[in-house]
User: Fold this.
Amino acid sequence: MQRVYNFAAGPAALPLPVLEKVKEELLSYGQAGCSVMEMSHRSKSFQEIADRAETALRRLMGIGDDYAVLFLQGGASLQFSMLAMNLAARGDRADYALSGNFAEKAYEEGLRWCEANIAASTKEDSYKGVPELSAASLSEGSKYLHLTANNTIYGTMYPEIPKGLPAPLVCDMSSIILGREYDIKDFALIYAGAQKNLGPAGLTIVIIRRDMIRDDLEDSIPTMLRYRTFEKSGSMYNTPPCFSIYVAGLVFEWVESEGGVKEMERRNREKAALLYETIDASSLFAGTAASASRSIMNVCFTLPGEELTSEFLKFAGERGLCSIKGHRAVGGCRASIYNAMPLEGVKALADCMKEFETKKA
Amino acid sequence: MQRVYNFAAGPAALPLPVLEKVKEELLSYGQAGCSVMEMSHRSKSFQEIADRAETALRRLMGIGDDYAVLFLQGGASLQFSMLAMNLAARGDRADYALSGNFAEKAYEEGLRWCEANIAASTKEDSYKGVPELSAASLSEGSKYLHLTANNTIYGTMYPEIPKGLPAPLVCDMSSIILGREYDIKDFALIYAGAQKNLGPAGLTIVIIRRDMIRDDLEDSIPTMLRYRTFEKSGSMYNTPPCFSIYVAGLVFEWVESEGGVKEMERRNREKAALLYETIDASSLFAGTAASASRSIMNVCFTLPGEELTSEFLKFAGERGLCSIKGHRAVGGCRASIYNAMPLEGVKALADCMKEFETKKA
Assistant:
């Protein structure tokens, strides 16, 4: 079976050289005589794998020692609660910028724990863009401002991360981490599910400024939901998701070998521009995101009517362009073009869209 | 690099045919044109993988529809909290049988949430055996009795699961699930980290009798820590650990093809007997577990002194018998002989022990 161009939103395409390496090492890693999947997480071999992954991520994102890098489980969805429980005491205020489904979920989990406030929202506008944020919209004494850097479902992103706001910034970067350059110093906490731009599902990365890790947490908070637990143990309080860490480490090294995050961003902007140009020039396809908020990772577009949409998805599928169906919450089409999607795949999609439009004209 | 006999306690050896299948399908699964790691968890292909895994596990363990099978993350360590939060309200009583490190940790996390009571313990006896349990030792109105079926660190197991006790039984089966036959009807909840007998780390299996799933939980409990969340969504509230589910599914099918859990138990008893006989006949090696509580999954033994222990570990390592070092909490040696460890490996270890003893005589 030939490999397709996989535009899935997550789990998503991985770089082929990474998969080939994983395949090569599957029965026996290095001199270990066993698969990474079979290796004790307390072994020297695995410790080296984890250390290499962390070091590579630190280099790629310019993360200094004033930040801890944690390898966790549970996805961004568990972080929605964990971050609130770790950064706010009950009754504390925290602010949320609502820019999509996952931002809403983060807010809802925040509400379970603290006085979560909606500082800004584009919900009324069906999340077509990202909200404007200002110091005036934040709560007094806010423990953090939570935002979602890129909105996978709506295909939007913050063109720039807001700066100079009085609350520490907590950012869900699941769908854009390593996809464009950010200044780590702008954030108190960054988290990301691995399954979009970093590796297989089952690994969650948390990057937290060490001075944000509190120890005065309510007793009832589980050991496994405390950042300190993982910071103290090098993410090995219990068995970590070893294989996902290993694959993510290979992805980090692949990103470095390709020129780092700067080069990834250049490519992602080029890929996105090609699709947006195709959409803007079309009278059949229409973009759904507001121009100023267009994502460089998830390009969302529609065709008139469900029948035509299905027909296009089938047409694309026959050309090996797969998983372009939009999220079930919004319908339409979505091309996720994370780091592992080559320009050739995006060109093939743009050509396919043009061909389909010509056929329908 | 040749594969070794890997006696690691978890992550642990996987069946070679499973690894070979994973390798074969690594770049493209079936007709999907992508790796399982790259596949949307909402895709038909992945849903089939998850369904197959669940169905196979149900067949293997005789799990009826009155139980839900959940695929979670976070390991047994997160279950320590999750089970308490889901089965007990604050102030409710719950009982714990302490038979080792992990049982203690489960109890400690229980204490954060409810009135956790130690119903029985062998701690005073350095966990050399498992405790006796009786109705009289349970708290009045106890919401559950928690026990650890097999104690990885101490090499002990309950020879029989206690029956007829007034509290619903909650069981950590991490290191013995599918290793011997149990009657599912004896349990209200079974949980297991996958990385010992089921598959790669990062997947946690929960089997819960549906009538135990409560909805009247305290508001502050995170959505991601509610069993209902996963029961309602078929374990896909958010992205599950897809690749680990896939590999576990292959392991389940391998167990079936080898004759099911009954045959696994027969083999495990045979392997364990061979090692215990070697130990009992030796004047150099000594078993640490009380005879009546000896585990058929983790065989713990010591040599006189650390120097001799190191020498033996090196001697075994040179013969391709690896990861026999005991847990850092107790020292000595431990041979974990889960389902994937063939009799040949255990024979090689027994021979190696005899050879070492002769050499030292």
